[in-house]
Amino acid sequence: MAYYRPPGPPPDPALVRSLTQQQHDMRLRVRAEPLAQEPRLIAGCDSSFPTPDTILSVFVVLKFPSLELVKKVYNYGPVDMPYVPGFLSFREAPNVIHAFAKLTHKPDVIMVDGHGIAHPRRMGIAAHLGVLLDMPTFGVAKQKLTGTFAEPGIERGNISPLTDAKTGELIGEVIRSKDKVLPLFVSPGHRCDQATATRLTLACLRGYKLPEPTRLADYWAEQFKKEVR
């Protein structure tokens, strides 16, 4: 996800308390489990902010394992919530839900450009969306948000654990998706486990740093931006 981080005054403490409680309640609903069966369709999801007050969210749906593009949709709308660090999912989720509703081919699992449980309160955008949609989701992020890890080997396919700095809990895996490029941070969202998230990420690599579902979602986001400008 491409986040807009505007400057401004500190967030309202009451709002922060409310959002924290909502994340806590949603976290209790998250389930880590393998998929019931191998997916036939996998979606990629990405959001960006063409302006400080608007958001564009994209879904692409691909056949699995061939990764043939089946459908692409977007939704463009206003952003009603202010920027609050650690709670970016609340800015994005409403518009993402609108984009998802436009899909005529519903996926079996969603790969989200962002984090799953690899979040300070274990509720990154992938987990957030998974709970709201009651769909299997996992996150593939380009930057670490929390946790500690040892750098994986420089060749594609090398993996190292991402763990909570205090508890040692496994919250994700760090994957070298292409030789000698910066790694990706993969974590389960909802109705998905780490093994599944990692396996599907690796299965969707086609020579680029990003796996095809989120790479194509990002590509089509740039194309769709031309329609809304």
UniProtKB/TrEMBL annotation:
Site (Interaction with target DNA): Y83
InterPro entries per the UniProt record, alphabetical: Endonuclease-V (IPR007581)
Record flagged with keyword DNA repair: yes
Subcellular location: Cytoplasm
Keywords: Cytoplasm, DNA damage, DNA repair, Endonuclease, Hydrolase, Magnesium, Metal-binding, Nuclease
Binding site for Mg(2+): D46, D113
Pfam family, one: Endonuclease_5
Stated family: Belongs to the endonuclease V family.
Known function: DNA repair enzyme involved in the repair of deaminated bases. Selectively cleaves double-stranded DNA at the second phosphodiester bond 3' to a deoxyinosine leaving behind the intact lesion on the nicked DNA.
The protein's name: Endonuclease V
Organism annotation: Hymenobacter antarcticus
